[in-house]
Amino acid sequence: MYHPGECSAQTRRFLCPIFEAPPVTSTIPIRYISPVFRPPSEADSLILPVTNGCSWNRCTYCEMYTAPQKKFAVRDEQETLDSIRLVGEQFAEKVQRVFMGDGDAMALSTRRLMTLLQAIKDHLPRVRRISSYCLPRNVRDKTVAELQELRQAGLSLAYIGAESGDDVVLQRINKGETFESTRDALDKLGQAGISRSVMLLNGLGGRVHSMRHALNSARLRPKWQRGL
Questions:
Q1: Percentage of the chain surpassing pLDDT 90?
Q2: pTM
Q3: For position 225, what pLDDT does the model report?
Q4: Domain coverage including residue 209
């Protein structure tokens, strides 16, 4: 099992989906709740919290959002808008990428996401990529047309923690998803033009379910490989 605390400071930036939030005295006008997580490829991005924690937070392998202060909550919209405005006043010419955190930004309604994306466009005009984590279940209630709106407003990349494409393995880790629900989410995002970065966990099937984990996870690939 991966434990975030096992990463050394030297390797964390490259290998671990975690970074330490700025101290209270930081000049970044954003209220972070530690620990703050992001994909390794977002090391140079502005981390913009729009939620706290993960709305599912029941996966047996994951310890990312188990701290008491990381209980899932939607961040106040006005606070987020103020943060975007204040960052724009100080760093408008420097910020080119934005990662919307925490683990569940796509849990927000399309309306709220559109409001935040528009604010990023207005106050951070040099931004060229906006991304977020995305649970398959958070795509379920969004239409392709809504996702296309989000894409046109600037959301260009979603990180999907599929973990496995095998239903037995997914049930054993209490993922709350199935092969079909993950595939459907990848399809909808692809139709909307949103690129997908899919995360699969090697060895998640253990010795007993290793083969079916590998084979069924590979079945997901045709649904997202052309979008990367």
A1: 83
A2: 0.86
A3: 61
A4: 161-228
